[in-house]
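User: Thanks for the earlier help. One more: DNA polymerase IV. Can you show the sequence and predicted structure together?

Assistant: Of course, both are below.
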Amino acid sequence: MKMMYPKNGKVILHIDANAFYASVETAHDHTLKDKPLAIAGNPKERRGIVVTCNYIARKRGVYAPMPLWEAKRKCPELVVIKPNFPLYRQMSKNMFDYLVTISPLLEPASIDEGYLDITNCAELGSPLDIAKSIQQHLIQTLQIPVSIGIAPNKFLAKTASDMQKPLGITVLRKRDVQTVLWPKAVEEMHGIGKKTAEKLNAIKIVTIGDLAKAAPGLLKQTLGIKGEVMKERAWGQDDRQVNPDRQSQFKSIGNSTTLSQNAVDEHEVLPILNKLSRSVSSRMKAKKVVSKTIQLTIRYSDFKTITRSQTISKAISEPNDLFHYSAVLFQKHWNGEPIRLLGVAALQVSHHVQEEEQLDLFTYGEQAKKEPLYKAVESLREKYGDNIIQSGLKKQRGKKER
């Protein structure tokens, strides 16, 4: 069996759950199995955008992100369910808890996909045997279909898993790159978005093969250092290791809400930011993580969306701190136009213990003094409601009252 594994290289699987949210809902309610299903918000709350849909709905012209009214026009019998994120997170945990039993070298890339290094798993069978076993186990135990890419590196494994959906298993070797990948349009390459593709098309790079053969200097001039990386990927080269710690190092925790009515006054916005901050704080504490970078998302009534962040000197997780910095970001960056959506996120979270070790005596003393206050405030709010204590903020100069 070891002969089926490379002597010096790696064998990487990319496991990608198919239509994950819809699959979880179907696993939870088997009556949905043969029905076109979309996950979307409540139209009455103006969240009428399809988040994802199952493959039955996709065959009838429904896709994400499609306005819900259009999806229903294309597929009148469409079943629409509001997102149930706690359920999705639990299913994701169940999936990854199983995958790590195959190999400890597991790197979750998002809630529904991850990389698994099986280079040292020859005793479990061939790479294809392992992939089939994973696929069958997840269907039988969790009712979650997955597509799996098998390759010598992460880039090719991710590319391979996208080739056959749903329930596909694809092997992609470096020697296949020129025949399989090079004829494809450059925008089909993993890691290249619409804007990057437009820049490449403008310099006559249309296919992945064109990218592979392009002059390094031209790519660097057009895309910066990313151009060099993209050229390597076009040749099937990727030396990134599967890193089990990567998720905890770079994961973000956030929450957002679409407003039932456009907000035009900061006095409407601040309580919403406060509520979002408390939600984010609760999840951070449950995971025992902290962050030094807070991000605010504002989507205006014309759907223009901006994200602004601030990095601070000390790591935080308390709701009052999250609220303070999100409010400061709001007052600094809001252009005064009507707001449709607000979001608060903690970026690049890290474990609380790691940050505690980095605190100096002065910072520790300051935080220790605040801790009883935070706990008292939270206790009062839990007992008497959110409005029992309001945080004070200086009004931005020059801002007209509405």
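User: Great, one quick takeaway?

Assistant: The two ends are 73 Å apart (CA to CA).
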